[in-house]
């Protein structure tokens, strides 16, 4: 993107999304690192985002007291350090803007920043004091403004740790030394010191003091801090955006570069619950879902929004796979020669390719619904082509048979063979005609069926000729040429069906293995996400124990056990149990591809048994 676009704005008091910005995001097919910045007015958020974007004039920067950024603006960057990922920067409307006069906007913007980003930067000035922490009161309101489930319970907010972004506190214009009790601290140590709870919670003020710190510690899976000195002499601050790097304070330049490098190289890709990677296209669906809920006055629900995203993505994956499959099968159906062997071979190959396309775009879930839909539609196309091939094959085989058998049928009708030696002549001509017919119809689906039908229709005439030929030996009378031909044709049909069956079994086995890997990969990622959240809670629990805060340690223990239960559920998930539950839905459709062949085989076997 050459310039930022407004992603979210207010209209008539309601949140709206910008179609132009959504269109840009829609085109991004790779995972995204989504960095959003929040903070009070005139703290330099836009300048910071321009630094991350590597541009001088990107997000609006002004030296007046009036805030320019309204809603949420975005800027996408492709970074050399991350060739397969995109950095999406979200510059948010300032918190506490006196021109708004309504904190509801702040809560909505802050909630969206949490929901959409993988890294949340809180941009503050001077130092981390009680006032700056109080400016973060939006954090403690999140549990009242975001739902994990559509039916929330007491444990609802415990799952926030699974999707909350990394929290980065950025201290701007720091003029004080980071020194506590004579000990120099790193910015990270300073942040953890500030987040330490008070021993006593007797007063209401102490309770509020601890509530915010407790919430940050318990819900943000990771956190860090960067501290910048003044970038230049205060008289030059108004022209900060235009200053060259050589005009900046050396210490500021170094620390700013460390921060930029951290964001550019940090592997904090945006994911949703279930550890699903978020591309630009997927972020569009999430944004529309969250903004739509807020505009309707409904609390944004994480799981229902993700469920909607999964539905949209998986349906789009089905559509994309089917388009490929339909285009390929259309090319095949327009070929000059359509045979069953070619159809089976082509279908096996293209159905696997279509499934790979589906897998590449889809998001893991356990319903099996979209897999079933994909297979059912491909099977329907396959069966339609099979009928088409069968009808065309019958026409071509009948034409070949009529040509090869025309003189034999005329001689049978005229009684030409009803004389001594007539059957031997008939047998010789029949063998020759069948040989020519089979050579011309060797790739035809209905070749054997049409020949069998002809032999059955003419059986009484052939038998009559055989009976009239007095020169046949007793052995020849016992074994007719017709029976030999029918037996041979039956064996050929059996071989063809076995070959098709082996090909279908191989295809089904490969698809089944792909499904297994796909689902187990998703469960593994989800388990790793839960394990990471568990480790975070374990760390917080141990910290509280060391500080002697047993009630907080107990609460952290409860959150840990809640996450551990979900982790064990993910680990115990079994592909075999999944198959037991969903095989009828998933593989019944696959088997219908063989049903027509099986019915056809039984029908032929039944008819041949009457001969």
What does this structure look like?
The protein has 611 residues and is an alpha/beta fold. 61% of the residues lie in helices and 10% in strands. It contains 19 helices and twelve strands. The strands form three sheets. Strands 2-1-4-5-3-6-7-10 form an eight-stranded mixed sheet, sandwiched between helices. A hairpin with a 7-residue loop joins β4 and β5. α17 runs antiparallel to α18 and α17 runs antiparallel to α19. It is elongated, with a radius of gyration of 37 Å. The C terminus is likely disordered.
Features:
alpha/beta; eight-stranded mixed beta sheet; two-stranded antiparallel ribbon; disordered C terminus; 611 residues
Largest sheet: number of strands, sense, barrel closure: 8 strands, mixed
Mean pLDDT: 77
Hey, roughly how much beta strand do the residues contain?
Answer: 5-15%
Q: Give the C-alpha Rg.
A: 37 Å
The DSSP helix count reads 19
Q: Helix amount, in percent?
A: 55-70%
The general outline is elongated
Number of strands: 12
Structural class: alpha/beta
- Report how far apart the termini are: 77 Å
Sheet with the most strands: spatial strand order: 2-1-4-5-3-6-7-10
Low-confidence stretches: 63-67, 582-611
């Amino acid at each position: 993107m050459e310039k930022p676009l407004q992603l979210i704005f207010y209209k008539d008091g309601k949140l709206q999304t910008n179609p132009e910005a959504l269109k840009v995001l829609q085109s991004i097919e790779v995972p995204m690192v989504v960095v959003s910045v929040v903070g009070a007015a005139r703290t330099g958020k836009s300048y910071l985002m321009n630094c991350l974007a590597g541009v001088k004039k990107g997000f609006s920067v002004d030296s007046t007291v009036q805030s320019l950024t309204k809603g949420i603006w975005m800027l996408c960057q492709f970074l050399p350090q991350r060739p397969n990922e995109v950095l999406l920067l979200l510059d948010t409307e300032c918190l506490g803007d006196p021109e708004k006069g309504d904190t509801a906007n702040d809560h909505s913007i802050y909630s969206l920043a949490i929901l959409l980003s993988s890294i949340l930067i809180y941009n503050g000035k001077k130092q981390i004091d009680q006032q700056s922490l109080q400016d973060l009161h939006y954090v403690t309101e999140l549990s009242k403004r975001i739902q994990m489930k559509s039916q929330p319970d007491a444990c609802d907010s415990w799952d926030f740790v699974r999707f909350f972004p990394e929290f980065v506190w950025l201290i701007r214009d720091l003029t004080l030394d980071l020194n506590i009790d004579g000990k120099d601290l790193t910015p990270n140590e300073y942040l953890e010191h500030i987040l330490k709870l008070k021993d006593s919670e007797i007063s209401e003020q102490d309770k509020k003091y601890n509530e915010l710190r407790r919430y940050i510690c318990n819900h943000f899976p990771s956190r860090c801090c960067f501290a910048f000195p003044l970038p230049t002499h205060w008289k030059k601050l108004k022209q900060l955006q235009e200053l060259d790097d050589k005009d900046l304070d050396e210490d500021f330049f170094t620390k700013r570069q460390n921060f930029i490098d951290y964001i550019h190289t940090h592997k904090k890709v945006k994911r949703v619950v279930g550890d699903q990677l978020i591309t630009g296209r997927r972020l569009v669906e999430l944004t529309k879902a969250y903004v739509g809920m807020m505009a309707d006055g409904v609390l944004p629900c994480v799981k229902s929004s993700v469920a909607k995203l999964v539905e949209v993505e998986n349906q789009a994956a089905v559509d994309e796979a089917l388009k490929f499959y339909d285009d390929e099968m259309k090319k095949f159906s327009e070929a000059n020669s359509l045979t069953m062997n070619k159809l089976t071979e082509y279908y096996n190959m293209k159905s696997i390719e279509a499934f790979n396309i589906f897998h590449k775009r889809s998001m893991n879930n356990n319903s099996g619904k979209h897999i079933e839909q994909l297979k059912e539609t491909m099977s329907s196309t396959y069966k339609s082509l099979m009928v088409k091939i069968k009808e065309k094959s019958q026409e071509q085989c009948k034409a070949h048979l009529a040509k090869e058998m025309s003189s034999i049928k005329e001689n049978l009708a005229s009684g030409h063979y009803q004389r001594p030696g007539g059957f031997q002549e008939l047998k010789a001509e029949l063998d020759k005609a069948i040989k020519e017919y089979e050579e011309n119809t060797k790739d035809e689906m209905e070749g054997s069926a049409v020949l069998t039908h002809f032999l059955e229709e003419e059986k009484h005439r052939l038998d009559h000729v055989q009976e009239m030929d007095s020169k046949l030996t007793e052995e020849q009378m016992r074994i007719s040429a017709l029976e030999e031909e029918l037996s041979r044709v039956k064996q050929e049909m059996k071989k063809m069906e076995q070959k098709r069956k082996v090909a279908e079994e191989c295809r089904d086995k490969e698809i089944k293995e792909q499904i297994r890997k796909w689902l187990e990969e998703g469960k593994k990622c989800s388990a790793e996400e839960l394990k990471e959240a568990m480790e975070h809670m374990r760390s917080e629990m141990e910290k509280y124990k060391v500080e002697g805060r047993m009630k907080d340690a107990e609460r952290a223990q409860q959150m840990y056990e809640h996450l551990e239960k979900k982790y064990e559920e993910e680990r115990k998930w079994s592909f075999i149990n999944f198959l037991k539950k969903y095989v009828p839905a998933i593989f019944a459709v696959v088997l219908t591809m063989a049903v027509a062949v099986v019915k056809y085989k039984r029908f032929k076997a039944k008819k041949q048994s009457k001969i």
